[in-house]
Amino acid sequence: MNINLLTYDSIDSTNTEALKQARLGADEGLCIVARQQTAGRGRHGRTWVSEKDAGLYFSIVLRPKIETNYLPLITLMTGVAVHDTLEEFGIDADIKWVNDILVNEKKIAGILAETVESPSGLAVVVGIGINIRSTNFPAEIAETATSIEEHLSARETPANNSLPSLTNLEPAGLSQVLTKYLGDFYAILQRERGPTEVIDHWRIRSSYFTGKPVRVLADGNVVLGITDGLDPNGALRIKASDGSLKVIQAGDVERLREDDLGRREMHAN
Ligand code: BTN
């Protein structure tokens, strides 16, 4: 994939701009990066806080050659790429199905994949927001969000000083590492056994793959249960507390503590 990076000082939303460009026929590999977003968007119509130079605000246009039913795997393969990007900065991240990248249970990055029809076929725009600094987090996310900065300043400097330091941690450096991993895992996804390989990569990086007590909000319904792997298209399987197996195609996952699940089951009985 040829990466073509367009950078903006300020923009409403890099995803909105990338969708516009894709609709006009932009090639795959077009990346929109901005120092600031005035209308950054998260999933379910939420706002993505996008202060100037406090994060990476990045969107890429993809034109995947995969079967339509595997399109949800694009979010999963992006999660793997973001995970490995953070690892290069010495950060040990977790991936919460389907689009959250966490460190110590706090959100450090999010992914918003959107599709658009264009004269040359369907395009997928993948938007990625990575928190670099947290000094100005608004009160509503201060408790649940974290940033690269918090973890770089907390960690020990290795003797050989091989990890990137805070001073070279700028959006440009970060997007360079990210595009490398996105290119690698996107190529994997499009191989013959790509969907299975992407799920394998996700499995070894996510504590949510199996055995995690969760509460899922999907289509207005609440499911309580334990995660039980992913379907081949990336849907989340849950062993529900009533013994049934639920397959979640889209929804919001919240981690529960073991005893929390037990207590809620007792109340349900
Ligand atoms: C989420 O976790 O809800 C998804 C957040 C996605 C945020 C990124 S920032 C770059 C791109 N532009 C947007 O407006 N949103 C995505």
Q: How many angstroms does the end-to-end distance come to?
A: 54 Å
Query: Can you give the mean pLDDT?
Result: 91
Structural class: alpha+beta
> Which stretches of 5+ consecutive residues score pLDDT under 50?
none
Major sheet details: 7 strands, mixed
Specify the number of helices: 7
The radius of gyration computed from the alpha-carbon positions, rounded to a whole number of angstroms, is: 19 Å
Based on DSSP secondary structure assignment, what is the total number of beta strands?
Answer: 12
Question: What percent of residues adopt helix (DSSP H or I)?
Answer: 25-40%
What overall form do the CA principal axes indicate? Answer: globular
Key structural traits:
269 residues, alpha+beta, five-stranded antiparallel β-sheet, 7 helices, 29% helix, binds biotin
Provide a descriptive summary of the structure in words.
This protein has helices at 14-23, 73-88, 139-142, 148-154, 171-189, 194-205, 258-268, and strands at residues 4-8, 30-34, 55-62, 94-96, 100-103, 106-118, 121-131, 210-218, 221-230, 236-240, 245-248, 252-255. With 269 residues, it is α+β, with helices and mostly antiparallel strands. The strands form two sheets. A seven-stranded mixed beta sheet has the order 1-2-3-7-6-5-4, sandwiched between helices.
